[in-house]
Amino acid sequence: MHREIGSNFWIDRYKSLPEEEIILDYLGIPTKDVAFLSTGRSAISYVLEHIESKTRNLVALLPQFTCYTVIEPFLAAGYEVYYYEVNKQLECNITDLQKSVERYGPSVILFHGYFGFNTLSNLKDVVANIRDNGVVVIEDVTQTLYSEFEHLCADYYIASLRKWGPLPDGGFAISAEDTFKSKPQEIDIALQEAKLQALHAKHLYMTEHCGEKTHFLELFRKAEAILSGQQGYYAISDFSSKVQANLDLVFLRKRRRANFETLLQATSDISVLESVFYTLPEQVTPLFFPVYIIGSDRRSAQDFLAKHDIYCPVIWPKPRYCENVVSETVDWIYDHILAIPCDQRYGNDDMERVGDALVSLQKQI
Questions:
Q1: What is the mean pLDDT of residues 96-118?
Q2: Structural domain boundaries of the chain?
Q3: Is the whole-model pTM more than 0.85?
Q4: At residue 1, does pLDDT exceed 70?
Q5: Is residue 186 within 8 Å of 236, Cβ to Cβ?
Q6: Can you give the pLDDT at residue 56?
Q7: Class of the 25-175 domain?
């Protein structure tokens, strides 16, 4: 089996999976209605369309540190978008948030946690006050999907499911207080097939040494092109529904936490790295092990790790929409953050290998 760490998940598309229903009860979110869609991006658009009659003006407030796929649904729906600050611990700057609410008068505010951690814990009272003033609150729970702390008291919740496992597609929208008028029924067959081809090609490469790496990478690129061009709403695919419903969440949580702890210990004396989170609270299920690269050029660090078959993504590159509108701190975050894989595909030996590579990185500088 190949020993590369990171990048796209893989799966045997012909593996038999039992028909199960996706259960979201573990989130502890008050749920009046739920819609399963093909992506988290479309889930945002779906909610924005649903609340058209509730929004007095098309003004949205989003975090300065975010992904372009969070911003674009608002722009496509005609919203004027403004941003509130976060700090290096990825917590909301409450003072800036309150000033931004007063200054821009948003009708919608979106919040999201980061990397599985409860970075929104300081917002409970603030969010309650915001909602009391008629602002619609959306929480994107994508990165905190399997953590076990209490979420914000929001009006709507959205998520992408495919960040955590080998799903061709998948997302959801939850309404806490009202019912969605209609739900997508049609599946994007082209997207499902393109993703399954890519996922299976990587499965063959990783487990059977079959095929070339360039082949499955090209298949993933083609699938992402289909996703980027997707118009309208689609339902989650049947394959993704089965994969999601059959995820072993106990194993996922346990393995990710153990891997994170191993990396915490392995990187404690590496001066070119600054951990974003120095402890792992009991309720947290980490998405990645995020660090700031402070003693080296980040691109060089990525290239060095790639030579050791360790592929660390930047989450996130700064969206073009955020140029000249974010604070110096958030600019610094965009320039320095790197996400080290610690997911359920890997065990302690893999994490120790990552740690050894990071020690070698420091010696190269």
A1: 97
A2: 25-175, 189-229, 249-364
A3: yes
A4: no
A5: no
A6: 76
A7: alpha beta
